[in-house]
Amino acid sequence: MLVQGQAQNWNASSIMQFSKDAFPVAFDTLVHFLRIPNDSHDSLAIVANVHWCEKTYRSRGFQVQTIYESGVPFVLAEWTIDSRLPTVLFYTQIDGQPVDPTAWHQPDPYQAALKDGNGAILDHALARTTWNPDWKLYARSVSDSKGPAVCLLTAIDILKKYGVHPAFNVKVIMDFQEELSSPKLPVAVADHRDLFAADMLVVMDGARHVSNMPTLTFGARGIATATLTVFGPKVPLHSGQYGNFAPNPVFGLSRLLAAMKDEDGRVLIPGYYDGIHLTAEEKKLLRQVPENAQELSHQFGFAEPEKVGDNYQEALQYPTLNVRGLRAAWTGDAVRTIIPDVALAEMDVRLVPETDGERLMQSIRQFILDQGFHLVDGEPTDEERNTFPKLAAFDYEVGYAAYRTDFDTPIGTWLSSALTRALGEAPLLMRTTGGSQPISPFITALGLPAVSVRIPNPDNNIHSPNENLRLGNFLEGIASCVGVLTESIKQ
User: How far, in Å, CA of 225 to CA of 399, rounded?
Assistant: First the structure.
């Protein structure tokens, strides 16, 4: 075993060389891992991923146990170096969102495709010899978040190859229901506080800043979801026979949704932004993140952004109100001349630390009532249909809360130093990310400061068809993890 001080002397050049040497095996490991389908809704697929994780960490000398909470598995792997050292808990997400294979530009979203900048599929063997950092690997969960998980594994392998122990005790928690809002995680953490006990929490999830600079993110928004259904006739009716007579629920839903936001994108529901007050110092801090709103808007194909905040970073400090899906009758080749029986909107709300998910969802519910709708549970009865001209149902679920860690805490200093040493440049510090992570149970129950080490490229098509991971980001992710594992924590 080498003394830790020797690993502390590894610089950006040596760490990058170690990472390049390990890259071919890391690439093959990731491709193999991606072949295991991981849709959160598929229990058999999740079991296969659990077994892979158990075997993989045991083979590296970790103590591994699987904790079941109401049948939901969480794999915990431990590498104890010295009880006198601090302990760092790494959070990794293993599950993924569903896939529509017909929308992918490859035969199978779980069979990773290596592509060049023109989208041409390349032989995987090239990743073992000469490869371009701008090439991308395409597969479900390659960026969210099996790629980052393999970066951590590869860094562990590099340390073991050179006989180096981490500068602290290591615990790794693997979550298999993150895409379902990790409903059992709070109970699991509360019931097993001793197992999850640590001094810091490093989150291996989330993409880098839009500049693709090395990024540390000190917070994430929470999430709540809802289904809003507006009812029309009992059954779809012929639009010629009953047009101008039977009310179309699409227009009722459209008016209701339009009333929730103004043309600048600000939510009009009373009290929605209560409790959020950005100080002049906080605004200054947010403006230091290098980005141009117009360039960012044009990159994504719209003329100008909404005006919830003065810039993108400010916008992230407020709760959102998003319509993530709409359904009413049929479209395309299946379209038919009918008045639909229902119009449905699937919604999500991203929470910030200053807001309470339950309060926001109740404020939306009250807003619907204030617009003259009668709310029902499930299908309306004949009596309700005959009595109330505006019928709707509003069902919601609060997932998990937001979190935020201050920049000037020891975990921020430690990770900033680790990434600077590993990559040769200081990372970009972001106050929060727009996405959500189920980290609040660790903060609430264990009081852990949490920061996210961001690895994937920002244009990774997360949750969408053709999700991808840039090879240069994968390499730098390995190097980042080596830097973190060999950076001493000042006590």
Answer: 7
Q: Each residue of 152-180: pLDDT tens digit? A: 999 999 999 999 999 899 999 999 999 99
Helices (H) then strands (E): counts for the chain: 16, 21
The alpha carbon of residue 193 and the mean position of all alpha carbons in its chain are separated, in whole angstroms, by 24
390 in helix, strand or coil?
Answer: coil
pTM of the model: 0.85
Helix, strand, coil percentages (3-state) for the chain, rounded to 5, are: 35, 25, 40
Q: Which helix (H) or strand (E) holds 4?
A: helix 4-8
Q: Which two tokens stand for residue 105?
A: 């530009």
Looking at the domain that runs over 222-276+318-400, which CATH code has it been given?
A: 3.30.70.360
CATH 3.40.630.10 holds for 4-218+405-485: yes
Indicate the residue type of 220.
Answer: A
Tokens standing for 161?
Answer: 């190859």
Q: Between the CA of residue 463 and those of 44, 95, 98, 144, 238, what are the distances in Å? A: 21, 11, 8, 8, 37
For 57-109, the pLDDT digits (tens) are 999 999 999 999 999 999 999 999 999 999 999 999 999 999 999 999 999 99
Question: Are 237 and 246 spatial neighbours (Cβ–Cβ below 8 Å)?
Answer: yes
Torsion of CA 167, 173, 179, 183, to 10 degrees: -130
Residue 15: how many other CB atoms lie within 10 Å:
24
For residues 390 and 278, give the distance between their C-alpha atoms in angstroms, rounded to a whole number. 39
What is the Cα–Cα distance from 54 to 33, expressed in whole angstroms? 13
Alpha-carbon distance of 207 to 216, in angstroms, equals 10
Cis peptide before 59 (omega within 30 of 0): no
Structural contact between residues 389 and 415, judged by C-beta atoms closer than 8 angstroms: no
Kindly list the domain boundaries of the chain, sorted by start residue.
4-218+405-485, 222-276+318-400
Contacts of 3 (CB under 8 A, 6+ apart): none
Rounded to whole angstroms, the Cα distance separating 157 from 179 reads: 28
DSSP sequence for 34-79: HTS--BTT-HHHHHHHHHHHHHHHHTTT-EEEEEEETTEEEEEEEE
CB count in 10 Å sphere of residue 115: 18
Give how far Cα 16 sits from Cα of 116, 128, 472, Å.
Answer: 23, 16, 11
